[in-house]
Amino acid sequence: MKPLRSVAIFGAVGALVAAVALPAYAATKPADAAPMTVQQLAAVDAQSLVVASEATAAPVDRGSFSATTPDEIAKKKAEEAAAARAAALASAASASSRSFNIGSYALVSPGSGEVRYPLPLGSYRVSRTLGSGHNGADMVSPQGTPIYAATAGVVRVSSESYYGYGVGVVIDGVVGGQRVETTYGHMTYGSRQVQVGQTVAPGQLIGFVGSTGRSTANHLHFEVKVNGGLVEPIGWLAANAG
Predict the structure, then answer these.
(1) N or C: which end of the chain has fewer CB within 10 A?
(2) How confident is the model over 113-137, as a mean pLDDT?
(3) Does the pLDDT value for residue 57 go beyond 50?
């Protein structure tokens, strides 16, 4: 009897173990499914990758301009400020030129020749002439003295800021079959009476004496080039003006 009882006990224990373990095993076993292809396995393991060359940063907006570095921002600000100053200067110069009062001065200087004196005779003294790095004659005269075109020609330069000349005018003409270029510098701001491209007659009023640009006193800086070469202006006037 005892051996039979032991067999029965072992059988019951085995049945109990089977009843507990088999459901858990069944729960962990995956359900039958169709085998996966290599492509499907690759898709499951795939990951997103951002390539550095495609990851571009958008420019940083700074008001009315775009830049990406402090140096670029500073440079852009400087350019905009310079443009604004230039526009303001041009606007002021234009308004000043329109309102400049030429008083009772003659619009044409006395004389009948194709060369005229750029300032009225007796109204100036020559303080410096061609030489020692100076390209023309300094004709000292009171501010507001009228300046006349020495020759007929076409205005090539008419500016409120012509390099060191300050307010300046350059006229290209022909005298006696030779190309003659005359330059008039240091005029009063807003006093120019001619514009670029305008044709002028000899002795025509073009501006008024001042002290603009690289100047320390009121005077006319007068230059003459004949066929591209500088000539001494006062002697040239004495030989040709009439």
Answers:
(1) N
(2) 92
(3) no
- Per-residue model confidence (pLDDT) at position 242: 81
Kindly report the CA angle at 97 between 162 and 210, in degrees rounded to 5? 55
* Three-class DSSP category at 202: coil
- Entry pTM: 0.61
Q: How far apart are CA 53 and CA 33, in angstroms?
A: 42
Q: How many domains does the chain have?
A: 1
Q: State the pLDDT at residue 105.
A: 79
DSSP bridge pairs for 65:
62
What is the structure's pLDDT at 67? 59
185 domain residue, yes or no: yes
8 A C-beta contact, residue 180 and residue 229: no
CATH number, position 133? 2.70.70.10
Q: Cα angle at 124 between 122 and 130, to 5 degrees?
A: 125
> Is residue 49 predicted with pLDDT exceeding 50?
no
Nearest Cα neighbor of 113 from 198, 174, 173, 203 is 203
| CA 185 from centroid of its chain's CA atoms | 25
